[in-house]
Amino acid sequence: MPTAERAYLYTKGRILDGVLAGGELISEGMVSEALGISRTPVREAFLRLEAEGLLRLYPKRGAVVVPVSAQEVEAVLETREVVESFAAEKVAGLGQAAMDRLVKALREQLEEQAQLRAAGDGRGFVAADQAFHQLIVAAADNAILLDLYAGLRDRQQRMGLWALVNDHDRLRVTNEEHIRLVDLLEQGDLAAYRTALREHLGGTRAAVLHREPGGASEGTDTGAA
């Protein structure tokens, strides 16, 4: 693997996992020393991460990890609600067989979530959470819509991990809300599904921003720990 790619994946992985918190200052030297490479490929990696909105570069000082802003949280969750609601309606329109396949896949995913929850594996659960919702979007059989949704993956990972930091009961609540969503899809009650999805995303919003549902956040930016 090219050294610049190694530096990119190493740094990005630690940002998404919350090892490097929002607002934290990092340097090219830190990464080059950790990987045993020169600073030049690290500089290339930092530029790429700046373009993705994960780092803000300061010449001769290093880079600051860009925190997750309240505006970003709102934008991501609004997009998810629109996409996931449409996807469920699209699957329902494809016929009962398509919905049955989706429900079967979702219930299998729920089993994995239950195991991760029992093990207290927060990072694994966040990944499973993303996979759960992506199954719904993928079942709509719209490649452009799926690409749009996949583009939210990195932001969702940071938000999901931060939600767990702020709300230690989030694993249980999320798992139970997912079960409710699958039950409603199986019943064909799309109106109730949309309502449950909105409430589910509202819980994520509250957990990420560390506030009561419908209340004001404690700050405009969040970081991960």
Would you write up a description of this structure?
The protein is mostly helical and 225 residues long. It is built from 10 helices and 5 strands. It has a 3-stranded antiparallel beta sheet. Strands 4-5 form a two-stranded antiparallel ribbon. The longest helix has 24 residues. The C terminus is likely disordered.
Give the SSE map.
Blueprint: H1 3-16, E1 25-26, H2 28-35, H3 39-51, E2 55-58, E3 62-65, E4 68-69, H4 70-93, H5 96-119, H6 122-139, H7 143-150, H8 153-166, H9 170-187, H10 190-209, E5 221-222
Antiparallel strand pairs: 1-3, 2-3, 4-5
Characterize the overall form. Answer: elongated
Are there runs of 5+ residues with pLDDT below 50, and where? Answer: 215-225
- As laid out across the biggest beta sheet, the strand order is 1-3-2
Q: Helices and strands: which structural class?
A: mainly alpha
Strand runs, count: 5
Mean pLDDT: 89
